[in-house]
Amino acid sequence: MVEGATVLFEGKLKSAGLLKDAIAAVYEIVKEDVSFKLTKDGLFLSAMDPANVSMVIFKFLVPAFETYSLKDETLVGVDMERLMQVMKQAGSSDAVTIKMEKGAANVSLVFRDNSTRRFQIPLLNNPSEGRKPPNITFEATAVLRSDVLAQGVSDAEVFSDSVILMADKTRFSMETAGEMGKSTLELEKGRDDALVEISAEAPAKARYAVDYLKKMLKGAKLAENVRLQFKTDFPIQVEYAVTDTLQLKFVLAPRIETD
Q1: CA dist., res. 126 & res. 121, Å (int)
Q2: N- or C-end of the chain: fewer Cβ atoms within 10 A?
Q3: pTM, whole model, 2 decimals?
């Protein structure tokens, strides 16, 4: 850091755990160059995976920070692989300071616990805002325990590389079938506590790739419950949220089976 340079951004966290887990979840979908948008409301990112099958939208809000100072709204480009490697070095209880000076070529991360460790990650030239999420009017919303969704995906993987999700006004289910067998997970309103919320404008049914859903389950470390919103043969939105702290959304295109 240059002495006397103008500090463009500085954010301090009491502990690294939440940010570390969030970055790890984002990394499941995007492993290359990304751009974070620094605003008065927090840090924002949206990016597609290389195959254009899934998208991640991440918001890390100001209340998550112990202190948050931003001189000017800006875009910051970093290599996601490098950021992930650095965040892996943070202990979950480490205090974190993220700092960037105006015109600097690097962003600084400082981890403090029983020692002080400093890292500098090069900034990328010409960062650009990520793609906007698709504008979809979803037919069904189901909020369920994150571990139950993980179990349903794991069950499906035994027999197939895709799983059918279904929902109506009172029930949510996951079903898959293959040459070797079939698996089904069912949750019903008023019967199963793991189904926190269910609503549907119309019955919804769509098939999604198991391998992508598995990647999105990384967000389960962030929140006890997961919100699923989908529509027949349309993308699904998988959302983990901590009130006034963070929001992590994944959007996944459906698997359309042809005869």
Answers
A1: 16
A2: C
A3: 0.93
